[in-house]
Amino acid sequence: MSLDDCRLVELPKISDPRGNLTFIEGRSHVPFDIARVYYLYDVPGGESRGGHAHRELQQLIVAMSGSFAVVLDDGRARKTVTLNRSYIGLYLPKLIWRELVDFSSGAVCAVMASHRYDEADYFRDYDAFLAAVRQDP
Ligand code: TYD
């Protein structure tokens, strides 16, 4: 997997004077069935989350409120993507090291995931991640 496989997804936005509505459907807006949703909130200023990669998990990350930055690393290069719209998702394939930083006050980060939680799917050691991506064709 490479940074080019990480992409921004524009989600449907039903604009309405009563308030806007966005929805996410598995196998439509993301290339997987959504098995799990989790969210990060009440992140103290200056804290970071993530700092790992996944063997198989695919995800879509959305800034439901506020903003934060996602630092992406495929083992060869890095790039940073800022999320600050409720109708824009960041799709991450497997084997991408990510760190979530620069959370604004009140930011909410929602994640749609392709699998249920499985600690065995994590690379929490950067060197082990690097060794795995170097074997990935
Ligand atoms: P972790 O994925 O390391 O958090 P982040 O990458 O967002 O900083 O998870 C933190 C803790 O929460 C860890 O002990 C595992 C647990 N956890 C679950 O039990 N279920 C989940 O779906 C997630 C994402 C984490």
Helix content: under 10%
Count of DSSP H/I helices? 1
CATH fold naming: Jelly Rolls
Please give the order of strands in the largest beta sheet.
Answer: 1-9-6-11-4
Indicate the mean pLDDT.
97
CATH architecture: Sandwich
Attribute tags:
5-stranded antiparallel beta sheet, binds thymidine-5'-diphosphate, 137 residues, mainly beta, Jelly Rolls
Plain-language structure description:
The termini are close together. The radius of gyration is 15 Å and the shape is globular. The strands form 3 sheets. The protein has a 5-stranded antiparallel sheet with strand order 1-9-6-11-4, with no helix packed on it. The protein has a 5-stranded antiparallel sheet with strand order 8-7-10-5-12. Strands 2-3 form a two-stranded antiparallel sheet. Helices cover 7% and strands 41% of the residues. The protein has 1 helix and 12 strands; from the N terminus they run E-E-E-E-E-E-E-E-E-E-E-E-H. A hairpin with a 4-residue loop joins strand 7 (68-73) and strand 8 (78-83). The chain has one helix spanning 126-135, and strands at 7-10, 13-14, 21-22, 36-40, 49-54, 59-65, 68-73, 78-83, 88-92, 97-101, 108-113, 122-123. It has one domain: Jelly Rolls, CATH 2.60.120. By secondary structure, it is mainly β.
